[in-house]
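Sanity check. The docking grid for heme C depends on where the pocket ends up, so I'm generating a full predicted complex first rather than guessing from homology. Inputs follow.
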Amino acid sequence: MIQLQPRHAMALFTALTLTVVPALAQTGEKIAKAGNAAGAPACVTCHGASGQGLPTAGFPRLAGLNAAYFLRQLQSFHDATRVNPIMAPIVQQLSAADRQALAAYYAGLAVTNNDGESPADPKSLIAGEALAQRGDWNNGVPACAQCHGRKGLGVGAAFPQIAGQHPTYIVSQLQAWRTGMRKNDPLGLMHGIALKLSAADIDAVAAYYGSLDAAPSTKRSVKP
Ligand code: HEC
Ligand code: HEC
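Predicted complex below; grid placement will be based on this.
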């Protein structure tokens, strides 16, 4: 009988994931670029050739999103806990396997910064940073950083990355939680927070997160 040593099992596992994940991502790439036979449109039309979104239209960046978060959002469009007239018909045309493949593909794409996108007013950035990093306790608003990470890069599958996302999209989501168009968040965490934010708070915090590095930065060194 063949004894499977832990290191052999590990090697087998690595070999499997190395072949399965790229195959999944390749299928995802095909659907993203050309749609599928069931009639789903190419995602690139709206989300950009490399998944960076389209800020003027409010289409979010998908590159680098955690795969489990991504799948949950597709499911939410499907069960209408996230109401969106554009994405709702699209998800109907995606099979479970298509969704997995798309999630794997987008999770593997590199994220780029919003350089050059409508520069924010410095006062707004300062107010946004204060809210993001310290919250507004008089008003019962916790710091966004507590859940989304110190740099907004996200934490695990539950708390998505918001650093480098387009401000137009961040604003639209906070408004969607206020109005109840989006109510898929665990424990209503974002709904409760969004209700306590003013329009100025929303603009400021969106501008701040839009201005942050979208990936852990190695290139910006501290100047002497
Ligand atoms: C016609 C434009 C359009 C096309 C085509 C499109 N999307 Fe979208 N997508 C949107 C819009 C608009 C939103 C924001 C919805 C909202 O405000 O809730 C969105 C949001 C999403 C989100 C949520 C992102 C987040 O950060 O929560 C995912 C995931 C997504 N789309 C995946 C896809 C996939 C996969 C495809 C291709 C099969 C696709 N989309 C095709 C317009 C589009
Ligand atoms: C108590 C934890 C918590 C705090 C604090 C928090 N968030 Fe969230 N946020 C979440 C969770 C959980 C989700 C994912 C909801 C889902 O699964 O759809 C989320 C999602 C989001 C999204 C949607 C991202 C996307 O890709 O669609 C935005 C934008 C956002 N949060 C902004 C903020 C801002 C701005 C603040 C601070 C004012 C904040 N959050 C504070 C838990 C939190």
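Relevant for the grid: The CA atoms of residues 100 and 183 lie 23 Å apart.
Also worth noting: DSSP finds ten helices and no strands in the chain.
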